[in-house]
Design a protein that fits this description.
The structure is a single chain. The protein has helices spanning 34-48, 68-85, 94-103, 145-156, 168-173, 189-201; strands at 3-7, 12-19, 22-29, 58-64, 89-93, 110-118, 121-130, 133-143, 161-164, 181-184. By secondary structure, it is α/β, with parallel strands linked by helices. It has a five-stranded mixed β-sheet, sandwiched between helices.
Length: 231
């Protein structure tokens, strides 16, 4: 299928296309301007893939956790494009995409994914390889670094693992085993599109109105497109 994927959950603004030509992706590291860049990047990638927006058959997006503004941009962009093109969407955890990227080309079975959540905390999740996919063995949480390290030890014990994300250095400082080597830094749409393609195959697509960010922090709220502008 022709699938568009976007991720703006961190400073890496990333877009990927899955088509009969394979996967094409582009990324730009920038702390701001994701909202202005992501559509232009998508259109450029579509053109380079010989496709138009109307040729798309689905949209996947990095749902977070990550930057509150960034995950809102990804969700609203996915919602807007999908509604305009009458497409379904898949929400893919940015932590899961980091884990898939970290596990690529290695033999380890576990991946620790962590993103700096600011305010002295990290987002953390752990995944285990299963066939060509991943199984979540520690659901995304936001924790103090020491608590996150304890959760990792409780989850994987002495199993060999790799890591990914901007939170890894924070975890190392808090005592995480440095043998859990960091192999990915930022969520990348190349891995969002891989996970999204499998999600569509598995029938896990959703209506665009339900394309919501994964904030993890409970105090943050989000409105669907149909509810935006209401007070």
């Amino acid at each position: 299928m022709n699938l568009l994927a976007i991720d703006t959950s961190t400073e890496n603004c990333s877009v990927a296309i899955y088509s009969k030509l394979g996967i094409k992706s582009i990324s730009h590291l920038t702390p701001q301007h994701h909202a202005e860049m992501v559509i232009e990047m998508a259109d450029t990638l579509l053109k380079n893939s010989g496709l138009k927006r109307e040729d798309l058959q689905g949209i996947a997006f990095g749902s977070g956790p990550g930057s509150f503004t960034g995950v809102r941009i990804a969700a609203s962009t996915a919602q807007g494009l999908a509604l305009g093109l009458n497409l379904k969407v898949c929400a893919i955890s940015s932590l899961e995409s980091l884990a898939l990227q970290a596990l690529e080309g290695v033999d380890e079975d576990y991946a620790v994914a962590s993103i700096d959540a600011r305010m002295g905390e990290v987002y953390i999740a752990v995944y285990k390889r299963k066939g060509n996919g991943l199984v979540e063995v520690l659901a995304p949480e936001v924790l103090k670094p020491q608590d996150a390290c304890d959760k990792v030890r409780e989850t994987i014990g002495v199993s060999h693992a790799v890591g990914g994300g901007s939170g890894m250095e924070i975890l190392y400082e808090a005592g995480l085993n440095k043998n859990i080597r960091k192999r990915s830094s930022f969520p990348d749409a190349e891995y969002i599109v891989k996970l999204g393609s499998q999600a569509f195959t598995d029938g896990k697509e959703i209506d665009p109105e339900d394309a919501l960010p994964l904030y993890v922090r409970n105090e943050v709220t989000w409105k669907k497109v149909s509810e935006q502008g209401k007070h």
